[in-house]
Every structure is written in structure tokens, then in C-alpha cells.
Design a protein that fits this description.
By secondary structure, this protein is an all-alpha fold. 69% of the residues lie in helices and 0% in strands. It has helices at 15-27, 41-54, 57-70, 75-87, 91-102, 107-119, 123-136, 142-153, 157-170, 175-189. Helix 7 (123-136) runs antiparallel to helix 8. The protein is elongated.
Length: 193
């Protein structure tokens, strides 16, 4: 029995697409080329997701771009492409895709949009966007971690540490928050030159 999380990829649920694979397996033949299948949105999306795990941002971007070209309104495809562009430090070009993904109310889309804004140097705007996300999804620690980073970039280490304590309220074992608190506490103790 297939459940939601562990079933075959959607493109294999069609019997026409599954038959050549089963036949090749039973006959001991070589597997048919993947290109013999008709490429559709589910396949492109799946290939983008698979490329995410390879950590090759160029391939990752290309596969998600295929999915976005097939279905431009897809929040998942737009989020994947936006994240791939962020991975390549192409923050400005990631924003339109993240805006499309953000319309779906995905918390990750809201996070990566604000993250890209921060990386472009708009610290106060990113902090404001992350605070909105934090009110919508109070148990989501990533926006708070990014707020702390923005505060540290403003040399406001005391405020950054306060935000990190909020992270530890959500996740007491958060290693990133603990490490940053140690580092930034030392920054506060050093005399200003």
C-alpha cells in the first residue's frame, strides 16, 4: 500500500509509463532510456527535486526552470527555482519566482523571499517580513535566525542575541542559535575601537 509520503513518483503511477520499466525488470533487459517517457510537469518537478539533493545549483536551476516553463503558476516549481537561484547568489533574479511562490502562502516561500531581500542589503525590510512570518507561523525558527543575522550585520549584537533566545524558546537544541550566542556575546564584551 502506498502512502502519501512513500509512494512512487507521480509520473510512474500511469500504467503506460510503468509497463516498460516492469517489462525490463522481469526480462532482465536494460532499463529503457528515461527520455522515452513523455516529459510533463510532474516529471520536471521530480527531476528538479532530485537535483536539489545533488547540490548542483546549475542542474537544479535548469530542471526547476523546465517545470516553471510547463506550469508558470506552480508555487512548488517557483519556490524550487527561486531557491536554486539563491544558491547561485542570484538574489535579484530569484525574487520574481519567490513572489509567485509566496502567493500560495507557503512559509518557505515567505522565508526565502525575505532572505533574498536581506542578502540584497535591505535589512530592515527583511526583518519586517520575517516578523510577519513569525506571527503567521510562530513555531518556525528560520525567520528568527535570519533576523538575528540581519541584526548582527547592523552591529546590534544585543538585539541579535535576544532574537536567538526566542529561537531557543522554540527549539532548545538549536545549534546555530547556541553558536551565534557564544560568538556574539564575545563581540559585546570586546571594547569598541
Amino acid at each position: 500500500m502506498n502512502n502519501i509520503f512513500h509512494g512512487p513518483p507521480r509520473y510512474l503511477k500511469s500504467r503506460d509509463r510503468l509497463r516498460p520499466l516492469v517489462k525490463a525488470f522481469i526480462d532482465g533487459d536494460e532499463m529503457p532510456e528515461r527520455t522515452s517517457f513523455k516529459e510533463g510537469f510532474p516529471e520536471a518537478l521530480h527531476r528538479g527535486h532530485v537535483r536539489y539533493w545533488t547540490r548542483n545549483p546549475e542542474e537544479w536551476e535548469a530542471r526547476y526552470r523546465d517545470a516553471v516553463n510547463l506550469r508558470p503558476e506552480s508555487p512548488t516549481a517557483n519556490l524550487g527555482l527561486g531557491r536554486a537561484l539563491i544558491r547561485r547568489d542570484d538574489f535579484a533574479n530569484a525574487l520574481p519566482f519567490l513572489i509567485t511562490a509566496k502567493k500560495s502562502k507557503l512559509r518557505e516561500a515567505a522565508f526565502y523571499f525575505a532572505y533574498a531581500i536581506r542578502k540584497l542589503g535591505f535589512l530592515e525590510e527583511a526583518i519586517a517580513l520575517h516578523e510577519v512570518s513569525n506571527r503567521k507561523w510562530p513555531g518556525y525558527a528560520e525567520p528568527l535566525l535570519d533576523i538575528s543575522m540581519a541584526r548582527s550585520l547592523q552591529n546590534n549584537f544585543s538585539e541579535a542575541i535576544k532574537v536567538l533566545n526566542r529561537v531557543l524558546d522554540i527549539d532548545p537544541n538549536n545549534k546555530t542559535a547556541k553558536t551565534r550566542i557564544k560568538i556574539w556575546s564575545k563581540e559585546l564584551k570586546q571594547p569598541k575601537t
